[in-house]
């Protein structure tokens, strides 16, 4: 009973903190930081999606950003002046999820026999192929508008209220970035919920079985083909939803947002946080979005404070610190910052 | 073995702590004004360009150009409405990434900068322009050339450089009329800039009676162009047009020479750099390029600008003079408005008529350069030599 | 025909460069089963540090090839020290960690090396003085330079040398034993840590060699040049079968030729619908098809269940 009470109390506290975060951050640090939080929520959704593929099923995917791209471009094409189509968000997002899921299966099918690093390079190639197509499909027929990208995408609007415009409520002005924050956090919580349910389900256990030993899993009667394809499809679906949100939030998409480095960053979030462990992945996503921004603000003043002058180029220092942080975290916590308890036991012995 | 790891962790921890401290300092109020002197009018300028990544050298160059202008103005002792004008430049890195570009724009809006000079790339300038428009912050880009930027209906968007349409038109006509090319092969780097310029060039070249015999593409990270150059060699064009930047153009010129390709290269501003002639060496000779504006040596104040820039930052990479002019255009508007207020600067910007180091700057109704002049150059003996200036209706008499 | 021959020559040179870098990937993978993602950046450091030495000696009056050789030696020393350090700091502590942990440190190392290079050599592109014999020759209407011949020869010789080293020497036997099982190799009197360090040092010396040749061939060097090169070489190594020395060279050359032919003929084959901008799509497509039919690359051994 007390344990139950405590968990309710914990949830209420987390909920309040999540609800107040943008107001506090916006008032103290400014809207740019609320935007950073928005991106953190987006990346957490992405990382949770990739976590299904890499963390649960153990399939190393280096082209995950392709699904994000598919979702983003679908939204951009169906809700912008580019084709003059303006579908509402509730129609575009599910469609984006579906199409991204189909792409997931398309990628998964030919790679079923591949393992480890061979799978990594094929998924990497797949990601690059999608990006190159997005960049090139402006000729002979203009579909994606090529490298110029698609501008003036419709902002996401809910109940007739475009989230890009600020709203006054209870005497507080909620700016556009704050409204997006609430939407993203609610959706991220939904994805967390789905993730937890999946993990505890038959399918989740089948994924873990495949991750630990594919041959043994097969011998136990798991249809490894279907289960692997399902992992790809589920992961891709989450990616597609996040992509659609990204397009509506940013109101601009171009192929350069979907490069290999983005895939690698999302993978870093998953591994750094704690592969296969949802709270860890959330922590990883939050850290890797906030840290570079903190370094951006801090790299110059920090040197000023320590050495009395700016010795190193702050921009170089910022990326340098980021690289060092990746190395340091992995050296100290090889299983991630917040790994799955079961994994921790395995490591201890 | 654990020692280095620990040092790393300590370094990172120190960094994090310092970030916290630095934050407070950054928020501390501006230094207390001297009792005697009148309080200076502080005008904050935001500048954004890629300072890391493959285009970092061009980005830093932009920032240096803007910084020189800021230093010049602060040294000049200009008085605005009784207060000495003090410009403060806030330089940010957008990594040429649209997402970072928007983040930087939001940061500027939060910091209530009075005006923005930037961004460098069209890919960041266009999405960021929406935020500046919403916040009512005037924006002058020194180098974003994609026409879309000023054609979105934003009253805050200006540029001090001819756009792709203006430049491509001049280049295409020049290929047919002056260079008397019968055939051309077009290569671009599949970026918003390179492809945009190549498209406009093609239209104008075809109109001038030049036959397009091949259209090839590469990307902005490539160094090996032999495959497409070999294909072009089979078509024997008089001219090869390249829409892209010098890191690709220089090796391309060298590989043309290695393959025995006799065609001349024609490029826009992206290849019109000292880096190109320096890196391509002997292979640069005889190729052409164009740069919006008028050759510096013909501009009043041009040679002096180059000297001062070199003394402080070394060779000009590409757009530094445009960034310099962009700041100056802002300052002129501040002077006319007698205020650093964003809205008042914005009201004055359309009336700009300023003799910069690149050209005479006047804006049309979109915020584009009016009658943007474009100058053509030929590479000779490790240098770009000015050939002629086209479309300089608003230019001063030579 | 002369155009086809020219494309083959283009592809062969490009492929030999990929092969040289891929050999470094494959050596490390062969012994540790680890993708050393930072290898491309080591190549970059090799190119830039040789350039510094070459510039210092440019006015010394020494003949060009000698200057390049000294530059190469200096770069090799820098890279070997770097490779040794990277392994000790970023990989060794993680040898028994989850499989993806060293991947993340490798990415961290790449970022750090890039930024350090940017701070050391600046943001500009550097032109590389043409000190190697660069005369152009013509055969059947196709041209090639002497630098290109050097690159192809060096790639072939390096592969042969490495194969001799691995298959015919005591050190090679120790390497193979360590690759098979470090613990058992230890019982047989092999100092596994020393062997792994040596492998990294040799791989890094190869990176320096590749860096110097890339810089000489393209006449240009930049702190960002390692990323794409590393990516392509990694692809080549996988195409050939990662961990297999001959596979790295076959994969490298094949990738180079595929890219050249793709850029050269894709437009004609598809009636102009797809052009040279689909060169990389074409290359990755071939890779995927190859891996579907041969899941462990062209010359790779069957992947063990653990991998």
Topology diagram in text:
The complex is a heterotrimer of chains A (349), B (398) and C (307).
Chain A: H1 2-28, H2 31-56, H3 65-78, E1 79-80, E2 85-86, H4 89-108, H5 116-136, E3 157-158, E4 161-162, E5 167-169, E6 172-174, H6 176-199, H7 202-212, H8 214-219, H9 224-250, H10 260-273, H11 278-307, H12 314-332, H13 341-348
Antiparallel strand pairs in A: 1-2, 3-4, 5-6
Helix pairs in contact in A: 1-2, 1-6, 2-6, 2-9, 2-10, 2-11, 3-4, 3-5, 3-9, 4-9, 7-9, 10-11, 11-12
Chain B: H1 2-27, E1 41-49, H2 56-76, E2 79-80, E3 83-93, H3 98-110, E4 115-118, H4 122-135, E5 139-141, E6 157-159, H5 164-177, E7 183-188, H6 192-207, E8 211-217, H7 226-233, E9 239-243, H8 246-258, E10 264-267, H9 274-280, E11 288-292, H10 302-313, H11 320-337, H12 342-348, E12 353-355, E13 360-362, E14 374-380, E15 383-390
Parallel strand pairs in B: 1-3, 1-4, 4-5, 5-6, 7-8, 7-9, 9-10, 10-11
Antiparallel strand pairs in B: 2-3, 11-14, 12-13, 14-15
Chain C: H1 2-32, H2 39-57, H3 64-91, H4 101-121, E1 126-127, E2 136-139, E3 142-145, H5 146-168, H6 170-180, H7 182-187, H8 192-218, E4 220-221, H9 225-240, H10 245-269, H11 279-293
Helix pairs in contact in C: 1-5, 1-8, 1-9, 1-10, 2-3, 2-4, 2-8, 2-9, 3-8, 5-6, 5-8, 6-8, 9-10, 10-11
Mean pLDDT over the residues of chain C: 90
* Count of DSSP-assigned helices of chain A: 13
User: What's the alpha carbon Rg of chain A, rounded to whole Å?
Assistant: 21 Å
Indicate the proportion of strand residues of chain C: under 5%
């Amino acid at each position: 009973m007390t344990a139950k009470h405590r968990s309710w109390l914990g949830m209420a506290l987390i909920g309040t903190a999540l609800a107040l975060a943008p107001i506090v951050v916006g008032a103290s640090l400014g809207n740019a930081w609320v935007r950073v939080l928005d991106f953190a929520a987006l990346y957490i959704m992405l990382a949770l999606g990739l976590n299904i593929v890499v963390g649960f099923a153990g399939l190393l995917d280096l082209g995950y950003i392709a699904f994000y791209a598919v979702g983003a471009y679908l939204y951009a094409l169906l809700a912008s002046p580019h084709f003059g189509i303006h579908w509402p968000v509730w129609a575009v997002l599910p469609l984006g999820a579906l199409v991204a899921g189909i792409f997931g299966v398309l990628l998964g099918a030919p790679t079923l026999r591949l393992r480890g690093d061979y799978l990594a390079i094929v998924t990497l190639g797949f990601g690059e192929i999608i990006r190159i197509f997005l960049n090139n499909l402006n000729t002979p027929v203009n579909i994606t508008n090529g490298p110029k990208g698609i501008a003036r995408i419709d902002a996401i609007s809910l109940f007739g209220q475009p989230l890009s415009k600020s709203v006054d409520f209870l005497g507080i002005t909620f700016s556009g970035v704050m409204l997006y924050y609430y939407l993203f956090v609610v959706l991220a919580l939904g994805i967390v919920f789905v993730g937890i349910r999946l993990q505890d389900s038959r399918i989740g256990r089948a994924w873990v079985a495949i991750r630990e030993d594919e041959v043994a899993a097969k011998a136990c009667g798991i249809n490894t083909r279907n289960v692997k394809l399902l992992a790809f499809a589920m992961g891709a679906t989450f990616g597609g939803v996040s992509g659609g949100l990204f397009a509506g939030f940013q109101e601009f998409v171009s192929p350069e947002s979907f490069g290999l480095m983005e895939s690698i960053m999302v993978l870093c979030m998953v591994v750094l946080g704690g592969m296969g462990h949802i709270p860890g992945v959330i922590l990883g996503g939050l850290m890797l979005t906030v840290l570079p921004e903190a370094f951006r603000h801090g790299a110059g003043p920090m040197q000023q404070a320590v050495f009395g002058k700016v010795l190193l180029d702050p921009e170089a220092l910022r990326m340098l610190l980021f690289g060092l942080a990746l190395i340091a975290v992995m050296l100290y916590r090889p299983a991630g910052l917040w790994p799955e308890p079961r994994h921790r036991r395995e490591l201890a012995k | 073995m654990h020692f280095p790891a620990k040092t790393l962790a300590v370094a990172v921890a120190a960094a994090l702590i310092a970030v916290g401290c630095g934050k407070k300092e950054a928020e501390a109020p501006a230094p207390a004004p001297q009792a005697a002197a009148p309080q200076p009018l502080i005008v904050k300028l935001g500048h954004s360009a890629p300072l890391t990544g493959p285009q970092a050298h061009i980005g830093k160059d932009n920032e240096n150009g803007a910084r020189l202008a800021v230093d010049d103005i602060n040294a000049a002792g200009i008085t605005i409405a009784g207060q000495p004008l003090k410009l403060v430049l806030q330089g940010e890195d957008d990594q040429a990434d649209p997402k970072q570009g928007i983040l930087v724009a939001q940061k500027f809006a939060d910091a209530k900068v009075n005006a923005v000079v930037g961004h460098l790339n069209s890919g960041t300038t266009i999405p960021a322009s929406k935020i500046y428009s919403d916040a009512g912050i005037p924006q002058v880009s020194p180098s974003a050339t994609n026409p879309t930027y000023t054609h979105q209906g934003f009253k805050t968007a200006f540029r001090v450089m001819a756009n792709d349409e203006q430049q491509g038109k001049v280049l295409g006509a020049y290929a047919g009329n002056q260079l008397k090319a019968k055939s051309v092969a077009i290569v671009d780097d599949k970026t918003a800039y390179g492809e945009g310029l190549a498209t406009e060039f093609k239209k104008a070249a075809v109109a001038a009676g030049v036959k397009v015999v091949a259209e090839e593409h590469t990307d902005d990270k490539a160094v090996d162009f032999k495959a497409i150059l070999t294909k072009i060699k089979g078509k024997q064009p008089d001219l090869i047009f390249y829409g892209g930047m010098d890191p690709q153009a220089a090796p391309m010129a060298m590989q043309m020479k290695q393959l025995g390709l006799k065609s001349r290269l024609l490029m826009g501003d992206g290849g019109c750099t000292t880096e190109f002639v320096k890196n391509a060496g002997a292979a640069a000779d005889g190729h052409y390029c164009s740069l919006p504006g008028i050759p510096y040596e013909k501009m009043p104040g041009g040679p002096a600008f180059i000297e001062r820039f070199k003394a402080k930052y070394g060779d000009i990479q590409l757009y530094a003079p445009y960034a310099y002019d962009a700041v100056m255009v802002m300052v002129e508007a501040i002077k006319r408005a007698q205020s650093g207020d964003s809205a008042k600067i914005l009201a004055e910007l359309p009336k700009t008529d300023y003799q910069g180091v690149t050209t005479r700057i006047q804006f049309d109704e979109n915020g584009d350069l009016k009658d943007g002049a474009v100058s053509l150059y030929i590479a000779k003996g490790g240098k770009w030599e000015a050939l002629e200036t086209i479309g300089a209706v608003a230019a001063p008499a030579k | 025909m002369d155009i086809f021959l020219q494309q083959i020559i283009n592809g062969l040179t490009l492929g030999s460069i990929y092969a040289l870098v891929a050999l470094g990937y494959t050596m490390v993978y062969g012994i540790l089963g680890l993708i050393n993602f930072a290898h491309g950046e080591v190549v970059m450091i090799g190119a830039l540090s040789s350039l510094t030495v070459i510039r210092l000696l440019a006015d010394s009056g020494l003949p060009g090839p000698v200057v390049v050789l000294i530059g190469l030696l200096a770069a090799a020393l820098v890279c070997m020290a770097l490779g040794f350090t990277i392994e000790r700091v970023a990989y060794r502590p993680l040898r028994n960690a989850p499989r993806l942990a060293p991947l993340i440190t490798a990415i961290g190392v790449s970022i750090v090396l890039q930024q350090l290079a940017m701070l050391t050599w600046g943001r500009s592109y550097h032109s590389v003085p043409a000190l190697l014999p660069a005369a152009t020759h013509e055969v059947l209407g196709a041209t090639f330079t002497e630098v290109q011949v050097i690159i192809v020869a060096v790639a072939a010789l390096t592969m042969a040398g490495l194969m001799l080293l691995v298959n015919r020497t005591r050190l090679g036997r120790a390497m193979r034993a360590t690759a098979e099982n470090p613990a058992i190799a230890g019982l047989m009197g092999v100092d596994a840590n020393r062997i792994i360090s040596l492998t990294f040092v040799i791989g890094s010396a190869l990176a320096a060699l590749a860096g110097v040749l890339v810089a000489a061939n393209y006449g240009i060097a930049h702190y960002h040049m390692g990323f794409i090169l590393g990516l392509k070489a990694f692809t080549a190594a996988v195409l050939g079968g990662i961990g297999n020395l001959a596979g790295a060279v076959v994969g490298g050359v094949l990738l180079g030729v595929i890219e050249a032919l793709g850029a050269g003929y894709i437009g004609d084959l598809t009636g102009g619908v797809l052009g040279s901008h689909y060169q990389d799509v074409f290359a990755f497509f071939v890779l995927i098809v190859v891996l579907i039919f041969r899941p462990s690359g062209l010359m790779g051994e069957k992947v063990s269940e653990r991998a």
